[in-house]
Design a protein that fits this description.
Two copies of one chain form a homodimer. By secondary structure, the first copy, chain A, is α/β, with parallel strands linked by helices. Chain A is built from 15 helices and 13 strands. Chain A has a seven-stranded mixed β-sheet, sandwiched between helices. Chain A has a four-stranded parallel β-sheet with strand order 7-8-6-9, with helices on both faces. The interface between A and B is large, with 78 and 78 residues.
């Protein structure tokens, strides 16, 4: 039986994770390697939910490159340490043997890279020859050992574009409002920071609050008021993960003060809380906007650079495993900023899971509510270029895969 | 002094109101007519905040065509009846005399058309020769006497695109959620209905709730549960304006049960309320998404058809006033659906303000949670085509006008 490659997706989707899948599939085909996909990541793999890429139509594979979300399904399953419980690893090994899977490529974030590393270790410990590579994927851009992550550029491009449009919209009345835009990123401010691209290149947020700096309600209120009094309008971008001096999430303030009407833990997020707080304290009209899921799925405004790099990461993963390298993740090294140039390097999987990458100090303004020129130089290349989607009936056409489960 | 035209914008912005401004400006130039703009609509006009289009750079006027929001500012001012108070009308007449304004073109929704009509009447009653025309603008699509309104097609294209991307995103886990997307439209379901375009042409909402039909919480809960049990995921689109059998807004249920922590009237909208309610009743995980302001300002995904028709409406308004016609609004008449063809007609301004246009019965599914094939045929042509924006630094380039106030 021919040596085969198994690919799977894990964690929260992005606009370009399928571009990485496209990179994997096309490179594996070019190298004549049989490709299977585990549906719903490790969760599906453990149930034997595997499909054969040869069963998909070629035109759908072409569309896959520009299709958002995880076309092969996702999961949030973590594997225990081998020492604790080998059962699941043995199940996986059994499937790998049956299908002669000698290459395993897992596409996900921090936790997925940890899972990927454990599988690589188990295969080696059991003398089963299988080369494993991780492909990074996260809009949060918080993985260690890589200049940036596929998914971040497209999320940034959506965030900056939406903020530039919202900035124009909220500025039309002679007496406007304070508008608070809540942006994803629980522990790192990369996404919220990208809203500054709108401000630098056109119109965007006046104030930007990142989780890397303690958030002070009084100072925030005063700054919003000052901007509003000057411009009759104020646009603020806040990370969902901002915390006070004691490390307490600001969004949890709302939950302390009330549960929602059904006693669920959370109704509004930090944006809604702050908008409400500002109205109470200043009497100024406010509005809260959550960019929500659109941040990770707005493929129609994906960054071409991000899309191309996601494909490259997929291709590089295949080259790496076929080249006999294992237990690594594809990472990006920035060779130069102007002209922008990156190269792919391989980072040890086990080290990726050790932590998350926050925004470095050099990217954060001294006033704690802005970003630096260095950040703008870092982020601008990542949002460059527009993908050319196919449109039919006025809407983008996305891949529709069969994802038929094979018998084996 | 040369005969001049005055243009102004009013009400909530759209992605294409500036395309109508572009149509007015370029047609007036072609006809050699001096063009002024009142900043912040009637509110600015009453303060003498008027700018001269000749002071703007031509390249900015070109960009105006694709720039969202109201580039000349907006207002929500309504004028009293002449019989009640003539003061403001006399102020306007005084300014018109000073600048020899003989053509007045006002771009807005229902209330703005009413204002426009009152001004036309006052000018006639005072024997001041001034030809007045309204240009419709509303994402809500609820104006009478026109097949559809400029702004609706682009908002629909954004809503359907976002829903198609959200549908893929929310479908990636083996055990997903019920996702409730809240869409604008207080009294008419046109915008919410457009989410069905995503379902018909790709993936989109499973259930659609419009304000034209009474909303029943029990039936809603059961239907969401049924879809979820079948698909392990459910996407629902609800209009912000859904009401129960007694005509009470569902979003007001939340306010009845609690005020927010600062005693403001509203924290979450109807989507957040329903998501919370569903979790309580069914135990299924839920998420609420508000498409919020992006519905009216996402110029990056504007409909080319809508953009072209908005320009045409502006051009037609100028032709109408120069042709000696007054007290009318440019309206669209659908000549045929396949191929799609419209013509511009002139509707009496005074009749526009009489009411709003709800979705007709023939467009609403008998199950009260879907739309008909007739609606899809009506709406599809309106979202066709993509605008070609100029991008710099990875972001759309929008017009930056000087809007310098002239002295007179």
């Amino acid at each position: 039986m021919k040596q085969a490659l198994l690919y799977a997706q894990s964690g929260g989707p992005t606009s370009v994770i399928n571009a990485s899948a496209y990179g994997v599939i096309t490179e594996a085909r070019r190298q004549g390697i049989k490709t299977y996909v585990a549906l719903n990541g490790i969760e599906g793999l453990l149930c034997g939910k595997i499909s054969d890429i040869d069963n998909e139509d070629n035109d759908q594979i072409e569309l896959l490159r520009y299709t958002p979300a995880s076309a092969f399904g996702s999961c949030r399953v973590k594997l225990p340490a081998h020492s604790q419980d080998k059962t699941k690893y043995e199940q996986i090994l059994d499937i790998f043997r049956k299908l002669n899977i000698r290459y395993f490529v897992y596409n996900g974030g921090n936790d997925s890279m940890n899972t990927c590393s454990k599988i690589a270790d188990f295969m080696q410990e059991n003398d089963y020859e299988c080369y494993v590579c991780g492909i990074p994927k996260t809009i949060d851009n918080d993985l260690l050992l890589t200049d940036h992550c596929p998914g971040y550029g497209s999320a940034s491009k959506f965030i900056a574009t939406a903020c530039s449009e919202i900035a124009l919209d909220t500025n039309v009345y002679a007496h406007g409002r304070i508008t608070v835009v809540e942006i994803m990123g629980r522990d790192a401010g990369w996404l919220t920071a990208s809203s500054a691209l709108a401000s630098v290149y056109g119109a965007g947020p006046d104030l930007i609050y990142l989780p890397e700096r303690p958030f002070d309600l009084d100072s925030f209120t005063q700054k919003c008021k000052d901007v509003y009094e000057k411009n009759h309008s104020c646009l603020v971008a806040v990370s969902e993960g901002i915390r006070d001096n004691d490390g307490k999430y600001i969004c949890s303030y709302a939950n302390d003060e009330h549960k929602d009407m059904f006693n669920n833990t959370q109704l509004g997020g930090v944006g809604a809380y702050l908008a409400s707080y500002l109205t109470k304290k200043t009497g100024i009209k406010t509005r809260a906007i959550e960019l929500s899921l659109m941040q990770r799925c707005s493929a129609h405004i994906a960054s071409l650079t991000d899309n191309e790099e996601a494909v490259l990461a997929g291709k590089t993963a295949v080259e790496s495993v076929v080249g006999g390298i294992t237990n690594k993740m594809v990472a990006f090294k920035r060779e130069s900023n102007s002209p922008y140039k990156i190269s792919c390097v391989l980072a040890p999987l086990c080290e990726i899971a050790h932590g998350t990458q926050s925004m470095p100090d050099k990217f954060i303004g001294e006033d704690c509510c802005s970003v630096t020129k260095e950040f703008i130089e870092y982020a601008t290349p990542l949002i460059m270029g527009e993908v050319k989607l196919k449109y039919e009936n006025g809407l983008p056409v996305f891949a529709k895969l069969k994802n038929d489960v094979i018998k084996f």
